[in-house]
Design a protein that fits this description.
The complex is a heterodimer. Chain A is mainly alpha-helical. Chain A is built from twelve helices and two strands. Chain A has a two-stranded antiparallel sheet. Classes of the chains: A mainly alpha, B alpha/beta.
Chain lengths: 300, 386
């Protein structure tokens, strides 16, 4: 094996890792938004990704909507389902503790998954790639154009969220809820409305992750749980609640998996990522970018 | 009439009533399939096929004038549920025999129940271990049969084809499920017999989104061919990744789990030139008229398409074989579990969807590697490989 091909291989592993990592990061961001406002770990986050992919497939392949139109419609539909979930599963709980709410999200994820199986059946579905399937060759590595879309959407989401939380009044109100919900209520912020908004945002971001990944990996009703686990791992690795942490955690998970599969034994690639997670948690229990002082105030 | 008399008569009535009812009613057959869950692509066509056959047989007057009652349970691909449902079929429903499960792991898990209760089971799963008792020198378990070709036969068919084309150095890859693991074991075990060396053995998770890393590693090792052993969406993704990496010059073999035309569609062109071993029921129109299986496979394809308005998958064929072997056994044996078992074991020359079955006390699968034909994807369809 010569050096050039080794460099090409390395680049290939990195590109693949960053792409998979971007998907994990999007799921992790979804976890963080809801966690910040409510302290709930929304275990139905993976189902939003699955719904994003499948709704898009139906709109584009079945009803022949062009990609550019089907994309926003899908995001709106999945956001609607996120809101519905908040109304149907989270709000009606009479004495909410963090634990009961988390269990409610598990129930919601099962219901969503079951409904998806009834609607779409158990087959996998494909979606047209946004800009063709001809791979771009750079220094011996083959890069799918769709990879750029995935990474690009992660960048757009991060930029959008940063602007939203730093510059808009609603975003600042949401940040306030995450600091201290009782105090936020005292200064006149409607916490319930903020919770609703957090579910909407998470669902929308999940949908985008699902739409962009389907042309690469197909989509079926049963994908959600695995993505939720990986995304949750990424969120914890980076520090629950931290957006830069979600990105670092997601990309790290993707890179460790891809490089581990490439240079070591591929059978243990999930173990490498989880071992890294454990090591980080031993050294920094709050995660890489997590704030220890904030964690101390959280109940979960 | 004394009180004692009437009590005794009532007791007699009850005993006769319970004794008589299973014989007088119908032939009860149980079925365990993974109709939902991760293996639904196996269980769904299997259930539909079994139900279709029962309808056909009952409409034609049943077996020896008896109707068949089929009780289907969905194990959801879960070993615990499968175990409970198997007990329920035997103890509560009192079935004469059971077909299924769809998955190797589940079939292996419920073998002891059927051995203990002495109930015949015809599994629709692939692993050769289902019909090979390691603790008894690899002899089959007396009450367990299976209709799906063993992975070892698929591996032999692939290696025979490689030998013909002078391929000696290969890379293998597969998912980490029971199916992938069993295939990997067989690929490694049989390779020396054909003078084949395996230079790479890569694994991935059945829910993985991308196999580029594994393929990149394989590319660096320059094998003459690649064998992939998985089912579900990963077997499609892996072909796309392979094409993106410009590896389409390296011959690519898929396992017999690839036997569904939907996979070719989903691959969006990336499946062209891919080889895989298939049973006759995938390719009825490609079979020469002299082929013994031509008639049954053509009929099954027609019936299935007419009833369910979807193309059949090869997995349904395993259920077709299991049902018909069992029905034939019921015809000669009647409602007696031991006689049914003996009749299945003595089945010879049964022309099924996946081969011609010749069972014997030492072979409870009854197939040879001729049950597979090497097929190549050509213009989005199957074609016989040379």
């Amino acid at each position: 094996m010569n050096m050039a091909s080794l460099a090409g291989q390395l680049l290939q592993y990195i590109v693949t890792g960053v792409t998979i990592g971007s998907i994990y990061a999007m799921v992790a961001i979804g976890f963080n938004i809801i966690y910040n406002v409510t302290e709930i770990i929304n275990l139905a986050q993976g189902e939003f990704v699955m719904l994003g992919g499948l709704v898009m497939v139906s709109l584009h392949m079945l009803w022949k909507l062009p990609l550019i139109a089907a994309f926003p419609v899908t995001v709106v539909i999945v956001t609607g389902i996120g809101l519905l979930m908040n109304y149907a599963a989270i709000r009606p709980i009479r004495r909410p503790t963090v634990l009961t709410l988390i269990i409610a999200t598990i129930a919601a994820s099962m219901i969503i998954k079951g409904a998806a199986m009834l609607i779409w059946g158990t087959d996998s579905f494909d979606l047209t790639a946004f800009s063709g399937r001809t791979p771009i060759l750079i220094a011996g590595a083959a890069i799918q154009p769709q990879y750029f879309w995935v990474i690009g959407f992660l960048v757009v989401i991060v930029a959008g969220l940063t602007f939203f939380f730093d510059k808009t009044i609603i975003g600042k109100a949401m940040s306030a809820c995450s600091e201290n919900a009782a105090a936020a209520q005292l200064v006149g912020i409607d916490v319930r409305w903020m919770v609703l908004l957090s579910f909407a945002l998470s669902a929308a971001i999940g949908a985008i992750a699902g739409i962009t990944m389907t042309p690469i990996a197909l989509m079926d009703y049963d994908r959600g749980a695995m993505l939720a686990i990986k995304g949750f791992g990424a969120a914890v690795l980076g520090g629950l609640g931290s957006f830069p942490g979600a990105i670092v955690g997601g990309l790290m998970m993707g890179l460790i998996e891809s490089l581990g599969a490439g240079f070591l034994w591929s059978g243990y690639k999930d173990a490498y990522a989880l071992a890294a997670l454990l090591i980080v948690l031993f050294i920094r229990p709050s995660g890489i970018m997590g704030n220890r002082d904030v964690i101390r105030f959280k109940r979960f | 009439m004394s009180k004692k008399m009437s009590l005794a008569m009532a007791a007699m009535l009850m005993i006769f009533g319970t004794l008589a009812s299973p014989c007088l009613a119908t032939y009860k057959i149980g079925a365990l399939f993974s109709v939902t869950g991760p293996y639904s692509f196996l269980g769904d066509p299997e259930k539909k096929t079994a139900e279709m056959i029962v309808d056909q047989v009952n409409q034609a007057g049943g077996i020896n004038g008896q109707k068949i009652e089929l009780i289907v349970y969905d194990d959801e691909g879960d070993a615990t549920k499968c175990n409970l449902l198997a007990r329920k079929l035997i103890q509560q429903d009192k079935v004469l025999a059971v077909i299924g499960p769809s998955v190797s792991g589940l079939s292996l898990a419920i073998i002891p129940i059927f051995e203990q209760s002495e109930t015949p089971l015809i599994s629709c799963a692939a692993s050769y271990k289902i019909v090979s008792d390691d603790q008894n020198g690899g002899k089959p378990y007396p009450w367990i049969f299976k209709t799906a070709q063993s992975d070892s036969l698929a591996v032999e068919a692939i290696y025979t084809h490689m030998q013909k084309h002078g391929i000696k150095k290969i890379a293998i890859m597969g998912d980490s499920s029971g199916y992938g693991a069993s295939g990997r074991e067989e690929l490694t075990r049989i390779a020396p017999k054909f003078g084949i060396t395996i230079v790479a053995d890569e694994k991935y998770d059945p829910k993985d989104t991308d196999m580029t890393a594994q393929l990149t590693k394989i590319k660096g090792l320059n094998p003459q061919a690649i064998v992939n052993w998985s089912v579900g969406p990963t077997q499609v993704t892996v072909m796309r990744n392979r094409r993106d990496l410009g590896m389409d010059k390296i011959p690519f073999y898929q396992s017999h789990g690839f036997g569904n035309k939907k996979n070719i569609e989903l691959a969006a062109g990336a499946a062209e030139g891919v080889y895989c071993p298939l049973g006759a029921c995938n390719i009825p129109d490609l079979l020469p008229a002299s082929n013994l299986q031509k008639a049954v496979t053509t009929q099954y394809e027609k019936d299935y398409a007419a009833k369910y308005k979807e193309p059949l998958s090869s997995f349904g064929g395993h259920s077709w074989d299991a049902m018909h072997i069992l029905i034939n056994a019921l015809k000669t044996a009647g409602p007696d579990k031991a006689k049914i078992r003996a009749a299945i074991e003595n089945t010879k020359g049964f022309v099924g969807q996946h081969g011609i079955f010749n069972f014997s006390p030492s072979d409870h699968n009854g197939l040879t590697k001729d049950a597979f034909m090497m097929v190549k994807v050509h213009n989005g369809n199957w074609a016989l490989a040379d």
